[in-house]
Amino acid sequence: MGRFRCPVPAQRFLDAFTRTRNLFRPRRRSFTAPEYRVALQERFAAWRIAAELRL
Q1: Which pLDDT value is given to residue 36?
Q2: Residue 1 pLDDT > 60, yes or no?
Q3: Distance from the Cα of residue 52 to its chain's centroid
Q4: How far apart are CA 55 and CA 12, in angstroms?
Q5: How many CA atoms lie within 13 Å of 38's alpha carbon, on the beta-carbon side?
Q6: I need a labelling partner for 26 at 20 to 30 A (CA). Which of 4, 20, 39, 45 fits?
Q7: pLDDT at position 45, please?
Q8: Rounded-to-integer distance, Cα 3 and Cα 43, Å
Q9: Torsion angles phi and psi, residue 32, rounded to 5
Q10: Distance in angstroms (rounded) separating the CA atoms of residues 17 and 29
Q11: Sign (positive/negative) of CA torsion 40, 44, 26, 4?
Q12: Greater model confidence, 1 or 31
């Protein structure tokens, strides 16, 4: 992780990244290419809706 100067911020980034990555990356082998693209579009649409919510 070249852009981080010390390991603590890098670890924080990786922790957050790994928690959200699984929400967006469906298992590739379980879908055909068109199904995979549709699944990603649906997941990103849900993320956009969730990100617009003001808590």
Answers
A1: 86
A2: no
A3: 16
A4: 22
A5: 5
A6: 4
A7: 87
A8: 28
A9: -80, 170
A10: 22
A11: positive
A12: 31
Residues 50 and 55: their CA atoms lie apart, in Å, by 10
DSSP classification of residue 43 = H
> What tokens does 5 get?
């100067």
Q: Which residues contact 44 (CB under 8 A, 6 or more apart)?
A: 24
Would you give the DSSP letter of residue 2?
A: T
Angle at CA 48, nearest 5°, toward 46 and 14?
A: 90
- HSE-up of 30 (CA within 13 Å, CB side)? 4
For residues 36 and 30, what is the distance between their CA atoms, to the nearest angstrom? 9
Distance separating alpha carbons of residues 7 and 13, to the nearest angstrom = 10
**Spatial CB neighbours of 40, under 8 Å, sequence gap ≥ 6:** 24, 26
